[in-house]
Specification:
Number of strands: 9
Oligomer: single chain
Distance between the termini: 30 Å
Strand order of the largest sheet: 1-3-5-8-9-7
Structural class: mainly beta
Helix content: under 10%
Radius of gyration: 13 Å
Number of helices: 0
Shape: globular
Order of helices and strands: EEEEEEEEE
Strand content: over 45%
Length: about 110
């Protein structure tokens, strides 16, 4: 449905980011140290959801859920720049397909 997306800005000194997929399809955060990301509330199996994650990187390591399947099986290395990642799941969040959509974004 058009016009229902919302942007959620997360700014934290914590080292975890829990992204609630029931709240929108675009997430943004600025890490302040090595950060572990998790996804919650994926729709039921059989319903696809695509979402984006913008990271205003500080060069710290980002640890993604083990349920994310990356091209060639390797998660991208985070940099000290703005990066955007794209994800999709169709099985209720059992697995996610992830891709670095853009890096060094000015």
């Amino acid at each position: 449905e058009l016009g229902t997306d919302s942007v959620h800005q997360y700014s934290t000194v914590a080292y975890t980011q829990t992204l609630d997929l029931s709240t929108g399809s675009y997430f943004s955060f600025t890490p302040s140290g090595a950060t572990t990301v998790s996804f919650t509330n994926a729709p039921a199996s059989g319903k696809a959801i695509g979402f984006s994650v913008e990271i205003n990187g500080d060069g710290s390591a980002i640890t993604w859920p083990t349920s994310v399947k990356w091209p060639a099986g390797v998660a991208p290395t985070a940099t000290a720049s703005k990066e955007v990642y794209a994800f999709v799941t169709t099985d209720g969040g059992t697995s996610y397909y992830g891709k670095l959509a853009g890096s060094d974004i000015a």
